[in-house]
Amino acid sequence: MNPSNAEELDVPTIMRIGAARMTAGLDRMGRLDLAAHTEIFGPLPRLSVQQLIDIASEVDLRGQGGAAFPFARKLKAVVDTAKQTGQPIVVVVNATEGEPGSFKDKMLMIRSPYLIISGAALVAEALEAEEIIIGVTSNELANRSVEAAIAAEPGLRGMVRVVQQPERFISGESGALVRGINGKKPVPPGRKTLASDKGVDDLPTLLSNASTYAQLAVLALLGPERFASVGVPEEPGTVLLSVSGSAKRPAVVECPTGIPLGAVLDICQAPAGDGVLVGGYHGMWLDGETAYQVPVGREGLASAGGTFGSGIVLPLGDGTCPLGEVSRIASYLAGESAGQCGPCKLGLPTIARALASIVDGSGGIEALDVARRAAAAVNGRGACSHPDGTTRFVLSALEVFTEDLAAHVFHSTCGRPVRGVLPLPEGPETADAKQLMVDWVRCEGHGLCAHLLPELVHLDGTGFPVILPIPVPPWLEKDAQQAVQMCPALALRLDTDPKKRVGAQKPPPIPVAAPTVRSGLIGGPPRRSITAG
Known about the structure:
This is NADH-quinone oxidoreductase subunit I. Residues 323-368 form the NADH-ubiquinone oxidoreductase 51kDa subunit iron-sulphur binding domain. The protein is an alpha/beta fold. It folds into four domains: 31-227, 3-Layer(aba) Sandwich (Rossmann fold); 231-315, Ubiquitin-like (UB roll) (Roll); 322-411, NADH-ubiquinone oxidoreductase 51kDa subunit, iron-sulphur binding domain (de novo design (two linked rop proteins)); 434-496, 2-Layer Sandwich (Alpha-Beta Plaits). It is built from 20 helices and 16 strands. Strands 1-9-8-12-10-11 form a six-stranded mixed beta sheet, sandwiched between helices. The protein has a four-stranded parallel beta sheet with strand order 4-3-2-5, with helices on both faces. The chain has a two-stranded antiparallel sheet with strand order 6-7. A hairpin with a 5-residue loop joins strand 14 (457-459) and strand 15.
């Protein structure tokens, strides 16, 4: 494989509106090796911790992973903890990106890995950190690209290590990632602990999203003034958006903040239709007209009732049932919880079952009332942010898709099929997932399964089981096995879903060629090859 040929890389299309910054050079090369990265970006200047804090504060650099926490504050917090405790600092790059519909980090890992790594190395040198850890999931091409980048730079080999996590929705939560790196079960901790206080090996840890480090590298190269020459004053620069859903041309789009979201939808040939989900599956729905006009950015989307999140944009289009799409995702989110608290274990499945019964026409107004009451009961009571994000996604859908909701509640159907426009994961982690199935010839309606497994099974009005159509979550596998074994009629079984099997073909390897440039990632005056706008 020639890594300079973009056609051979199984990665999303890259599109731009305006300046090329984080995607600089990728219009000419499929992947930037060390020589190409140095030619385009040049070595980063050496900056002190205070200089990093100052430039990040000046442009209000925020995390790109969804929480939008100010990077300067995070940097200062980890420095303060290290001073108080006298402990060394660890730098962690969160490149797990386990949420369906998000692929900007994977694009950078595959095509411009040194931009992420150089941003992390810039911070590590300023903090005198002894180790950089990159948390990844199971995207083999992305992982090989990062490992090849580390191997090609002598200064990184002993300092940077890659740690793989399960590819689940909650694996990218900061607490879950820290637990996974520490060799524990990679789920959010029940009690909130800041990584800056106690992270990897209980050391002060600077943990940020992969795109955040890439953005920091661009900021260090350009300086605050040139960085802020594009975008809106309160949120300068460019952002990366992952656009799919109804898009005929799914892409990672780099664009300046402040432009209408409609411009992004247009270049991706993505009709908004009934609505657009912004911020991913913990995000908010906007009606099509509003979505087309709203400016890109945290404040612009928030002013219209949306959220930027991690930059996921999922237009729905016109040809699918909106409530059916929401029901699919609600069921998926119910199965993706850590299963640590009541709101996740019982509340989210209740919401998912209620939505499913509305969609199939069996629930009506009673099911709608159940969904709303369950959402109100769950919100703000979980051990992590997953219940809050899920209820935000569901409740905003009920507000935006009122016409579709009325059709299902009062007429049993909207007349449109559920086409699966919203993405769900397909990969090694889901290939062997098991689902609980009922043999209706044998089922006698004893109801024991609903008693043993209320998270997945409830009884309908006639006393027969209704099973949530999701893979059995890992934390429910023992209970599901028990329900199967104890069924008096032997009507239950656990089946591997054949639709979720994935081919075993592996992506082509990325060769580790000896770099022709040995100047290193940091040091000396930066070259000004990237487009400033």
